[in-house]
Structure to design on (277 residues):
């Protein structure tokens, strides 16, 4: 499945639901929540987090309490607003696609 | 040398020139890889297999470096608006100055030809100063954009993420 353009939405949603988390935890949660459907090269998720941070949608700080320093990410108020807007767009898009494609067949489900 | 160490060395090479973003990415990559390997070992995998799994899941160093460089790119809309503003200011200022020079050369004693209401030398000087300032501001905008693009280019290669699931 091509995830281009959807990763931001998934990352923001994960941070909203899970709260502040480091990259590894975010990726693990993403995989678990998607029931394994989205199996990204994990190293490519970090640049997406950096981009979201640059755009002010995500904040981050070093957590020195762990044995190794790790970066903890959290959703900013602007990120929460962006997430709400992206969710609306996605739902409109999905509703439109469902209307065009119609219900799935038993063959597709199998 | 362990597989994770080799991977980090290669990633370090690939991230050359990315500055603070690259250093941070390297730190996070190391934490991530060691955490994944530790989890795999907790599941019973031997260390070499656990590290192999961690590295495999992280993705090729070249891909990771490329996505990091892409993330550092200047926003295309901002970049275009910046360029157009610079060109417009430069164009307006230079066009006015050329026009002033041309009319002054054609009619040295007739300032009226330069613009409506431009009757005095003082007004002419004021307008030329304004035009020069606008042209200079445009040039500054273009130079600033060049610096920003050049800075972003140090941490960019091509646009967009090539994120695909392995399914």
């Amino acid at each position: 499945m091509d995830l281009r353009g959807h990763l931001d939405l998934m990352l923001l949603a994960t941070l909203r639901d899970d709260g502040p988390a480091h990259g590894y935890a975010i990726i693990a949660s993403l995989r678990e929540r998607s029931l394994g459907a989205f199996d990204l090269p994990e190293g490519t998720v970090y640049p997406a987090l950096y981009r979201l941070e640059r755009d002010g949608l995500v904040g981050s700080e070093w957590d020195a309490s762990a044995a190794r320093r790790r970066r903890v990410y959290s959703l900013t108020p602007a990120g929460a607003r962006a997430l709400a807007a992206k969710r609306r767009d996605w739902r409109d898009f999905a509703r439109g696609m469902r209307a065009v494609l119609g219900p799935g067949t038993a063959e597709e489900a199998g | 040398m362990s597989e994770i160490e080799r991977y980090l060395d290669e990633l370090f090479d690939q991230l050359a020139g990315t500055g603070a973003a690259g250093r941070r990415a390297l730190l996070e990559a190391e934490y991530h890889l060691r955490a994944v390997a530790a989890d795999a070992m907790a599941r019973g995998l031997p260390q070499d297999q656990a590290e192999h799994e961690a590295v495999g899941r992280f993705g090729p160093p070249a891909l990771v470096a490329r996505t990091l460089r892409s993330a550092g790119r200047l926003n295309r809309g901002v970049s275009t608006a910046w360029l157009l503003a610079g060109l417009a200011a430069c164009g307006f200022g230079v066009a006015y100055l050329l026009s002033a020079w041309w009319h002054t050369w054609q009619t040295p004693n007739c300032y009226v030809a330069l613009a409506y209401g431009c009757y005095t030398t003082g007004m002419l000087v004021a307008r030329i100063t304004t035009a020069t300032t606008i042209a200079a501001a445009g040039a500054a905008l273009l130079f600033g954009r060049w610096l920003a693009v050049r800075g972003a280019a140090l941490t960019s290669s091509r646009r967009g993420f090539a994120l695909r699931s392995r399914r």
Summary: The helical segments of chain B are 3-14, 19-42, 47-58, 61-71, 76-106, 121-153. Chain B has two domains: 3-71, 76-153. DSSP finds six helices and no strands in chain B.
